[in-house]
Amino acid sequence: MSTQNPNETGDLLRSHRFLPAALLLFLGSGCAALIYEIVWLQLLQLVIGLTSVSLGVLLGAYMGGMCLGSYLLPRLVSRRHHPLLVYAVLEFGIGVIGIAILFGMPWVAQIYTMVGGSGFGGILVRCVVAGICLVPPTLLMGATLPAISRWVEATPQGVSWLGFFYGGNIAGAVFGCLLAGFYLLRVHDMAFATYVAAGINATVTLIALGLASMTPFNGPPPEVASGDGTNQKTAEATGTTKNGLSPIYLGIALSGLAALGAEVVWTRLLALMLGATVYTFSIILAVFLVGLGLGSSIGSVVARMTARPRLALGMCQLLLAGAVAWSACIITQSLPNWPINPQLAGTDPWPLFQLDLAGCLWAILPAPILWGASFPLALAAAATKGKDPGRLVGGIYAANTVGAIFGALLFSLVLIPDFGTQNAQRVLILLSVVSGIVILAPMIWRKPADAGEAPLGLAGIVTLFCVAAAAIFLAVNVETIPWGVVAYGRFVATYNGQLAPGIVKEEDVPKNTGTATTYCEYVGEGLNGTVAVTMRTDGVRSFHSAGKVQASNDPRDMRLQRLLGHISALAFPEPKKVLVVACGAGVTAGSFIPHPSVNRIVICDIEPLVPRDVTPRFARENYSVVDNKKVEIVRDDGRHFIRTTREKFDVITSDPIDPWVKGCAALNTVEYYQMCKEHLNPGGVMSLWIPFYESNQETIKSVLATFFKVFPNGVVWSNDENGTGYDAVLFGQVEPTVIDVDKLQARLDRPEYADVRASLDDVGFHSAVDLLATYAARAADLGEWMKDAQINTDRNLRLQYLAGMALNNYEETKILNDITRTYQFPRDLFIGNSERSRLLEDRLKIRKTTPD
Question: What is the spatial distance between Cα 406 and Cα 258, in angstroms, rounded to a whole number?
Fold first, then answer.
């Protein structure tokens, strides 16, 4: 018989009229939590690295803290405490710790710089840092739902309210995701976003305290408050907990594993198709959360109405097999064929955001709805009258979160890089069926006491068998992502008529056929990204990442890649040690091979597939750089390597992918440039690539002003064609740069520089004058033009938000014209009294801009 206190029951019933108000608490709590999650992950990735391993460590710590909080609170906090008072304390603590993390992050960064590194030891240090920073606040976050759950009864009808609370929490998370991605971080910075989140925590705390004062709470008797209620003992005595509930916990854990695994897979694929901007990631996450919130609300309604919540939960899992197959089909077969040319939208990004939202809803919404419905149904299936609601919720939530942790790590670190997204989605389909069978298994054995519900019967067993067979059929027929999506991303529809099917070998690609057909030589899904190598019938080979060409042997690209390497090496008297951040096709790194004084080249790339499988395909253009004895390959992101290395270099070049790609702004902040500067030897050179295309003035001003803030003597070298803009090289030294034109030519004329001359000749630089004639401007000339520039820092990562909005702009020529508008020959930069110096001055007169 139940030992529930009659006074407690009366309080619960009287407080039901306040339950809708409590829903507002979860809206605010979810909003603040998502803002914190975005801010904390960005701040900590800047410290411990941008690789998938680092992100896996952070997600593990984040979700692990939430799991612990949900599990520990009902075991450490007595049921006699008013649930709303406990909730208020938790929210207040989250806000305090959130602000503490913001102010403590510089200290964390300093300590990590001293002790961090690579290898297994480095991963352990990352785990410690992530745990110290993320476990305390997320432990409190995870405890909020079990805390408030003690305000309702542990019956299917009572816990259905928890589904609404969970849905409200997710609805707040959706708002927080969009608020942070589209406003707080785009307009302000991470400090401002933290203060907003902390303000929401404070507001929720005050509301919770107010509700607590209006709803007296008489806790259960001491024996029930300690978690030893009669019903719990009875359940254990009959074996219901062991045989009936264990499958529910295992099933909801498998459901969480599949949900997070799907989020990882689909985010990877959709980011390729939509453009990997911060806004794309916000839209994908928001759609996923919308589905969870809708599903949770629907599941709560079903839990209140049905007498067989276990059956409903099992059916949700079985239906997920079809929902996952739907998403796999839409992502691989439907979205790539939408007849959309992004350029037709003009420079306004909002129409494309609406299209992206529609595509995400069409592709992935069904599955999150079912995963969201699973949580309240699991609560209802596991609920028994008299059981501590906190323990019930804490157990289900912890099991789901444990599964989510394994899902995020398994899919991002193992399944995708080792087996590909096609097989990963097959695993998702089978996982859903296994979860459903596990949940429904006790109903097959015809033991109602164990199952908690009537057995399925022969018809139900046959249905399960048919569903399993259908799932296998669906899994086998999952298609791989078309290589055109990997290569051309959001523009794949405009290239479809020019793309040859399948993957071919180099010798099978026709040459000089007069057609525009493009063949794919290689596609790889790696640890941190998906890459491809293509060959056109005109002989142009390209390296693709983030859904676009990142490097190629096209003459214009070759000119830029060699310019980046040679101008940096020749500006230093006799460079010996070089660091190249981002390998790509390896042409920039290979440009240092011919320089006779260079004896060490460190190439740092975040994606292991690139130096292993991509760069060797450009061996002729990069002088087989990855096989050269001078070269060391480091598989790490450049920022993390520079933070943790003790080595200094004569030259550092940085050639990451486009600044609109999420995460790349971290390689263009004041703090990153300062770290590079500190790792330069006296007279050392820092240089980097900057695209003028797919950009606007505001974005380029931010890049230049940020770089010149650290290198005030910086120079811009332009890779244009007859004044038509394209991209450029930023160049900086600590000391003012002085180039003696005659000495530079004399250096190139030396016998040991014959290979350097040949390398320059290949791309149209036949003399020192040709090379130096790429000069466009320097920092001192651009002060007025850059006066309203937004500086990109670790605290705002402003560049990725500016660049993400400018993705569809093609103002490269106007940008170049504005940069060169104030041109005057820099006599303190280029020195010399020979005819060669005067020739350079004449050549540079063409930099004067013609009227727009």
Answer: 9
Per-residue tokens: 141: 């976050």
**H or E element in which residue 156 lies:** helix 156-179
| Helix H or strand E encompassing 578 | strand 577-581
DSSP code of 291?
A: H
Q: How close are the terminal C-alpha atoms of the chain, in Å?
A: 87
Give me the chain's average pLDDT, please: 87
DSSP letter at 501 equals E
Q: Is 506 helix (H, G, I), strand (E, B) or coil?
A: helix
Q: Is 365 helix (H, G, I), strand (E, B) or coil?
A: coil
Separation of alpha carbons 381 and 374, rounded Å: 10
* pTM, rounded to two decimals: 0.90
Which of 530, 630, 248, 692 has its CA nearest to residue 622? 630
pLDDT digits 0-9 by tens, 219-240: 665 555 444 444 444 443 333 4
Nearest to 465, CA basis, from 490, 440, 447: 440
* Angle between helix 366-382 and 156-179 (nearest 10): 150
Residues whose CB is less than 8 angstroms from the CB of residue 577 and which lie 6 or more positions away in sequence, other chains included: 598, 599, 600, 601, 602, 647, 648, 649, 650, 651, 681
* Final residue of a structural domain among 421, 446, 479: 479
Using the 8-state DSSP alphabet, how is residue 608 labeled?
A: T
Output the CA angle 63-64-66, nearest 5 degrees.
Answer: 65
Q: Which domain holds residue 113?
A: 1-228
CA–CA gap between residue 185 and residue 168 (Å, rounded): 24
Q: Indicate whether 3 and 40 sit together in one domain.
A: yes
Instruction: Based on the fold, state whether residues 467 and 517 are members of the same structural domain.
Output: no
- The set of long-range contacts for 16-21, using a CB threshold of 8 Å and a minimum separation of 24, is 18/211, 18/214, 18/215, 19/151, 19/152, 19/161, 19/164, 21/207, 21/211
Beta-sheet pairing, 715-721 with 775-778: antiparallel
Token look-up 């290949």 returns 762
- Rg over alpha carbons for the chain, rounded to the nearest Å, is 30
Q: State pLDDT tens for residues 509-534.
A: 787 777 778 999 999 999 999 999 99
The two three-digit tokens of residue 453, written as one number: 């519900």
Q: Is 639 in contact with 630 (CB distance < 8 Å)?
A: no
Cα dihedral across residues 444, 450, 451, 454: positive or negative: positive
Among 517, 549, 581, the domain-final residue is 549
Same domain, 540 and 583: no
Distance of alpha carbon 434 from alpha carbon 440, whole angstroms: 10
Task: Answer for the pair 231, 377: CB distance below 8 angstroms, yes or no.
Answer: no
Exposed/middle/buried for residue 628 (C-beta within 10 Å: 0-12, 13-18, 19+): middle
Nearest alpha carbon to residue 557 among 514, 474, 628, 618? 618
Among 229, 505, 161, residue whose Cα is nearest residue 391: 229
205 φ, ψ to 5°?
A: -60, -45
The pLDDT value given to residue 126: 87
Which letter, b or e, does each residue of 444-480 get, where b requires 16 or more Cβ atoms within 10 Å of its Cβ?
eeeeeebbbbebbeeebeeebeebbebbeebbeebee
Instruction: List 520's β-bridge partners, or say none.
Output: 503, 534
**Residue 447 maps to which CATH number?**
1.20.1250
Q: Could you give the CA distance from residue 723 to residue 508 in angstroms, rounded to a whole number?
A: 38
Residue 219: per-residue pLDDT? 60
CB atoms within 10 A of CB 10: 12
How many structural domains are present in the chain?
4
φ and ψ at residue 518, rounded to 5 degrees: -115, 135
